[in-house]
Amino acid sequence: MLIVKDLSIERLDKKIFENISLSLAPGNITILKGKNGSGKTTLLKAILNLIEPSFGSIYWKGKLLKKNLYDFYNNVTYISDTTSSLKKLTLADNINIWKKFFISNINDTQIEIALKTLKLDNYLDKKVGTLSFGETKKLEFLRLIIENKNVWVLDEPLSNLDDDSIELMKQTFEDHCEKQGSIIFSSHQNPGIYVTEEMQL
Amino acid sequence: MLIVKDLSIERLDKKIFENISLSLAPGNITILKGKNGSGKTTLLKAILNLIEPSFGSIYWKGKLLKKNLYDFYNNVTYISDTTSSLKKLTLADNINIWKKFFISNINDTQIEIALKTLKLDNYLDKKVGTLSFGETKKLEFLRLIIENKNVWVLDEPLSNLDDDSIELMKQTFEDHCEKQGSIIFSSHQNPGIYVTEEMQL
Amino acid sequence: MKFLVNPSKFNEIADYIFKPVLVLSILFFALGLLFSFYLSPDDYQQGSTVRIMYVHVPSAWLALLTYAIMTFYSIAALAFRMPFGFIFNTAVAPIGAIFTLICIISGSLWGKPMWGTWWVWDARLTSVAILFIIYLIIIFINLSFENRVVREKVVAIFVIVGSVNLPIIKFSVDWWNTLHQPATISKLAKPSIDPSMMTPLIIMTFAFMMIGVAIAILRIKTEIISRKSNLS
Amino acid sequence: MKFLKKIIFFYYREYKLNMSGVQDILTNIVFFFLSVFIFIFSIGPDKETISTVGVAIVWTLLLLSSTLSLRKFYQDDFENGNLLIIHLNGFSFGFITILKTFSHFLFVQVPFLLSIPIACILLNIPNDKLLYLFTSFGIGSLTLSCLGSISSSMNLMNQRNFLLGSVIVMIFSVPIIIFSVGIINMAQNFNSLINILFGILLIVFAINPWASGLCLKLSIENN
Amino acid sequence: MKFLKKIIFFYYREYKLNMSGVQDILTNIVFFFLSVFIFIFSIGPDKETISTVGVAIVWTLLLLSSTLSLRKFYQDDFENGNLLIIHLNGFSFGFITILKTFSHFLFVQVPFLLSIPIACILLNIPNDKLLYLFTSFGIGSLTLSCLGSISSSMNLMNQRNFLLGSVIVMIFSVPIIIFSVGIINMAQNFNSLINILFGILLIVFAINPWASGLCLKLSIENN
Ligand code: HEM
Ligand SMILES: Nc1ncnc2c1ncn2[C@@H]1O[C@H](COP(=O)(O)OP(=O)(O)OP(=O)(O)O)[C@@H](O)[C@H]1O
Ligand SMILES: Nc1ncnc2c1ncn2[C@@H]1O[C@H](COP(=O)(O)OP(=O)(O)OP(=O)(O)O)[C@@H](O)[C@H]1O
Ligand SMILES: [Mg+2]
Ligand SMILES: [Mg+2]
After folding, report:
1. Which residues in chain E (175-214) have CB-CB distances under 8 A to chain B?
2. SS3 A151
3. Cβ of E13 and B88 within 8 Å?
4. ipTM over 0.85
């Protein structure tokens, strides 16, 4: 579905990486590894058409990504390395906003189950700003479930999580793959998650 | 030096943890482990007198911490789970501000060496906001070196770092212990760092 | 005429003409000051305060002229993707600002004896003050935006939009009846000014122009160099 | 249909966000009334003078306080990554700016509009001028929202000197002020002046998505 | 000695943060003048009217400028964790608020103070009033800085308290404004009015470290 061909990116005239190619088929998981500053985040952003590559091109469903951008956006969820939940609002408010804004076809019981497995169900009336760091990260995954898209683009999803949550992620990833979804994520840890391709940057 | 006795903390009438005791002598490293939301960050903040404990007390150099607060502050560096560098300024500006503000007795060559080992020496004129996530985390450690205090209180210092940097941290921690410094830090990973005490929350 | 659009050509020519221009400006200044203080008569109404005119009017003209040229360059730069226009804008805006400031200060100094106040809110004075602020904003944008590509486009667009102000300044005295002197010298027909005042005025205008060109050459050259060394 | 729903929920989100920050709206209104008081105190009880300058004062204060809230325009959403999420949910940057401009109009300017009648009482502004005031302010404030969008999106690229944006807005609003105040004082010219104001609004409105959208794109690219 | 150095470098830090160069102060001043312009445009060029409302205009702008920058007061430093670092470097919360208040005064109010003489020329304010204006403005702006500190530190805490913050500022600023503007218009009462103003300043100044300090402590505790 998603094909990256000979991608090179420069920022402030400094080459970040050159001639990266990868492809992400349904049911595949790709992990990006590499040192700090090697360009993992940059690559993920380029895939989302947020950074102009200096060379190379990206294709989505056979067409150039730029030509097919909003179809791609309809199929992708991005979780960046920082959190995106609104700190001033409660968990319930945040979930509500997401549910409506992404016109989710997920029903409330599914969300409740997800909340329970993430162990966030007690905090519904708490401001997101008063959660622990790991809890806000976990909250971010709720968006994956609410958005319910095909392609997941995740930037360091496993950092700051405890072992149970990582185990949970592993499970979620595998389920998603079975449903012919595809995942590309970056990580510094070796989480024991089954991956189709490992990309060293 | 630092002794925590039977500490219990409640937040919004919810018990976070109860009857925690620990002591941090010079040359010791204590690691805090525990699930997300188990209260690691809370404990570290309580040690810094930023959160009022419901029971228990903390001593510094034999006196109650509250009575001896600014002496303790003169001896402690805290790195929180978020970054504290000023995103709008360049690295050089940030370092300059820290150097002056903490009245550091570290000279410039030492800082340069540290920058080089952290592989940040090329970025001096870059805005901190344009660094990669891991690079900003590494920049935080520069504060450890610039402040040059005895007690280090670090909240998840190892997340988002690559293996080289973790190795470097390990080295730095050991050096600090040899100089009779003490470290208390929280982590989800098992970094292979030698620790005196492991505290499960 | 290629040197007016091409940075490297400009550098060549600039090296040639910089010294003559500087010498000329000093010459004109000396001559102009001599004329305006010793050789020109007092006005029968205004007394010797009329001599402020020899600073006021040239600086006013040059303030307007500078902005007009900047507008021209901005349009060219945006339309024909001509980087020299951007360079010109960055380099020349402070010069225009200073001319405008001189015009305002000399005008106020003149206004105190003539009108009895330093400042009135008539159309010309106000629009000149706006011109000054526009110049300042151009300078500020140049100083505070990091992304060069964006910055120079923003400046160019701003200059073009701001040029609406020029005709307002020029014709404000005709459109609204105000305290300020209507066009006496720059009338298209016959100027209604005595030649004994006209001569120093023209000389001073040349002097201002030359010094402006000299500073502009210096600033454009530094700007070109700084762009070469720092591509971002 | 789905797109329309998304737009509605965009505003639901904005509502949730802005209403939890009532203090910002409130600060603006408090500022507004405080300034009206200042004028009344300094001018003294002379009714004549007050009602001469009344309209002018209301207009200027509205202008100044809408520059107050510029910072919230994109800054917060940009910093916490929500701008990106909105974009990835299928809104082009240009379209986001249009939505945001209306949201600014709705949540910042409309509260003012509502406080105009009270200000009119305080300032002895005759009732028959109220209509003119409303019309001119309605058009003028939407124009100001557009200008605000442009300047605050430019400020994303220039994170320190955030007054510069306000200054740019203000210099562009000089003609707006002149015409709007003109409308009220010269009621006979009403139609031609309103047309001019409307013309300015159209121009700025057309430029806004293009200019602000570009700025958003660039600042996300460089983030 | 070491403490003094720390204070100096606190201001060095504030300077670095607030200023990327002189142009930032200049932008402040330009903002001020543009606002004056806009007032004038809306009021009309009539000399008499202008000099009646002149003082009021200057005072409103002062109020505006200090509300404009409230967000910079603690919010940024609080959110990026620097408040904590400053505290851990040996400054009690109360002391931080004093330092910050002066920094606000220095970087926001003083540039305005400097441009007052020119504004007086533009606004036809008679020279002999300049002294009064300066005195009242000097005292008033410091008082406003203190009030700003209190309200913005309250804003850091729960949204529940927002009303309190704004209300406190409002209650205290009303007398300040009445007296300050009064000073200028009734020159004979100068001394007694100045005393009252000074009294208010002292009260607010004494409350500030205690109140804001407490708010800072609480908000860091709950963060
Ligand atoms: C701050 C106050 C003043 C400002 C900003 C100002 C501005 C200007 C400007 C922009 C011009 C050039 C207009 C053009 O090219 O047509 C000009 C020309 C002139 N000004 Fe002023 N002026 C000020 C005060 C005065 C005063 C007080 C006088 C004398 C009573 C004066 C006398 C003149 C004369 C004689 C000209 C030449 C007019 C012509 O023939 O074009 N100005 N001024
Ligand atoms: N300001 C606060 N107000 C109320 N409750 C809070 C606040 N901060 C944290 N908590 C709660 O206290 C508990 C402990 O939080 P803490 O941040 O100490 O966890 P942690 O061990 O650091 O977790 P993590 O590994 O995710 O960083 C969590 O359940 C959290 O929801
Ligand atoms: N906005 C930007 N402008 C200029 N350079 C940038 C920008 N963002 C990142 N960089 C640089 O690009 C390089 C790659 O950054 P990137 O964030 O992609 O790294 P990363 O692989 O994600 O690292 P990490 O593991 O630390 O997250 C870094 O050297 C960084 O300094
Ligand atoms: Mg990254
Ligand atoms: Mg934590």
Report:
1. none
2. strand
3. no
4. yes
